[in-house]
Design goal:
Layout: H1 2-25, H2 31-69, H3 87-115, H4 130-155
Helix pairs in contact: 1-2, 3-4
Length: about 160
């Protein structure tokens, strides 16, 4: 997709050069008309370039979402430009990946400690929101229950 936009930009710039040549070489073409045509072509090229940049940013977002769907929660969108069309979407994706990464890290740590009899190490839910925080509360209840079962088994 990106190469097509590059070809369009090159074609527009080529047309601009042709019309500029005609404007300089032809007495029939008024200078004001040539400048207006050049301005229109420049604005069109700028529109194509902006469209290319937005499509490129969307492609990066889609790539990161595909990686996350495959279980890779480590990647993030970097160099997010303030005011960019995809700024909010990029930050939202990064925040979601942060929540998931923290959630899984804490769950794994809590159950790893519990498997070694260290049920006092509960999963920390600081910074988690919504369903992530609710699930962490339930996991901690489960880990505490495991600790109680272990204590009862030791007493018998």
């Amino acid at each position: 997709m990106g190469s097509r936009v590059h070809y369009l930009i090159a074609a527009i710039l080529g047309l601009f050069l042709v019309f500029a040549y005609l404007a300089v070489g032809s007495k029939a073409l008024d200078l004001r008309l040539g400048l207006l045509l050049g301005l229109i072509l420049a604005l069109f090229a700028l529109t194509l370039w902006t469209t290319y940049r937005i499509l490129h940013a969307i492609d990066r977002l889609a790539s990161n979402l595909q990686l996350a769907a495959q279980g890779n929660l480590d990647q993030r969108i970097t160099r997010i430009k303030r005011g960019a069309a995809t700024e909010k979407l990029s930050w939202a994706l990064n925040d979601l990946l942060d929540q998931q990464e923290a959630y899984f890290r804490e769950v794994f740590s809590a159950f790893d400690h519990a498997s070694r009899g260290q049920t006092y190490r509960l999963a920390m839910d600081q910074g988690l929101h919504g369903a992530f925080k609710d699930a962490m509360t339930r996991i901690n209840v489960s880990v505490e229950s495991l600790g109680q079962v272990q204590q009862m088994a030791l007493k018998e």
